[in-house]
Amino acid sequence: MRKASFIFSLSALRVIAIYWSNLTFFGYTLDGVLDDDDARDAIDNASRHPTLSRSVTFKPFEQDWGSLTDSSVIRNSEWTWRINVTNIAAPDADPRNATEDTHVVAATYDFTWPIDGNISAALDRSTSPLCIVSLGEEVDLPVKITDAYKEDTGSSCVPVLGQACVDAMLAQAPIPGLQDCNETAAISWSSIPECRDSFGVSSRAQGVFSVSRPGFNLSTNAKYSWESGQGFFWDVKEPVSGTNSQAYHNLGNKVHILMMYNDLRGRKLGPQLLCSRANVTELPDNDPGDDGVTLTGEAVLESGALSIFERRAASKYLWTVLATVSLTAFTFL
After folding, report:
1. Does 19 score more than 70 pLDDT?
2. Sign of the torsion formed by the C-alpha atoms of 252, 325, 329 and 40
């Protein structure tokens, strides 16, 4: 198994004079995470003008609609989950590991819902945490799992992980509380026997397996209001050379996985499992490392990223920004 590197560059947004570091953050605002207003605006605007994007619709907590009142706004509703991946040209950024044509790669998630109001209003005025579990950003799934996600897969994880794995993941999800997500009851996805061909392979091949478990406060306080279309996940990579855009291709090709659940005044909503993939190009399974497994990053390398990766017209935006990113991790509760 070889470490993948890439020889493809896609110019996108131009950001000047930012000193970047790795930043992975779940939350509906970057206030308190980035100290400079212009830096926050630059990342937010990057997410609004991506070089690669996919949206999938889903029915929130559909399995629980029968237990909700006729007046529930959750019943018969449809939300949209959007993934944006952006390759930002940042020629004046602190180069760190970059040697030429400096770029910064960013990915964001957002939800949109049909009613007016914030996330609390969209969940029948729930004030308990919206608990979200996501696949760790560095976890690289086997390419046969990734390739199972097709253009028409939508938000279902069954074609990717299989029904048995999905059922087992949902069965082991913690029961949420009124004030917390009950994280101590969580079981690692890689240890689930029914998921040994997906997460189990990744754990053995990489020697590490991780998930993120944020809990989003659904307070109606306007200062912390999560609105429809607002980003709730931010993954910004430290600068790389434009000719080595491994992070961009990994984020674009990987299967993104979310599990969410909530306590609605003592009634459990979920868990619900969602999958999506920004670029749905089928990747080759050639086992370049001759070790019995091809990870997605290896497959992108072997396929020739320039010829197969979905290209998008670059947006022409210019920000003059002076900022320092000093926080590399943040937990929002």
Report:
1. no
2. negative
β-bridge partners, 260? 132, 272
Q: What is the pLDDT of residue 174?
A: 84
Residues 80-130 have pLDDT tens digits of 999 999 887 766 555 555 557 777 788 889 999 999 999 999 999 988 888
- In tens, the pLDDT along 216-262 reads 766 655 556 788 998 888 887 777 776 557 778 888 999 999 999 99
Cβ atoms 308, 21 nearer than 8 A: no
Angle (CA) 259 265 268, round 5°:
35
Residues whose CB falls within 8 Å of the CB of residue 90, separated by 6 or more in sequence, listed in order = 14, 15, 16, 18, 20, 102, 103, 104, 239
Report the alpha-carbon distance of residue 135 to residue 157 in Å, rounded: 13
Rounded CA-CA distance 241/233 in Å is: 24
Map residue 222 onto helix, strand or coil. Answer: helix
Domain layout of the chain by residue ranges: 14-330
Exposure class string for 41-60: b at 16+ Cβ within 10 A, else e: ebbbbbbbbbbbbbebebeb
pLDDT at 322 over 60: no
Given a contact cutoff of 8 angstroms between Cβ atoms, the answer to whether 183 and 174 are in contact is yes
Residues recorded for the chain: 333
Q: Which residues contact 223 (CB under 8 A, 6 or more apart)?
A: none
Which residues lie closer than 8 Å to 327 by C-beta, 6 or more apart?
Answer: 23, 33, 34
- The reported pTM is 0.80
DSSP string covering 58-104: E-TTGGGGGGS-TT-SSTT--EEEEEEEEEEE-TTS--TT--SSEEE
In angstroms, the CA 93 to CA 112 distance is 32
Q: How far is CA 219 from CA 119, 174, 225, 258, in A?
A: 9, 22, 7, 22
263: three-class secondary structure by DSSP: strand
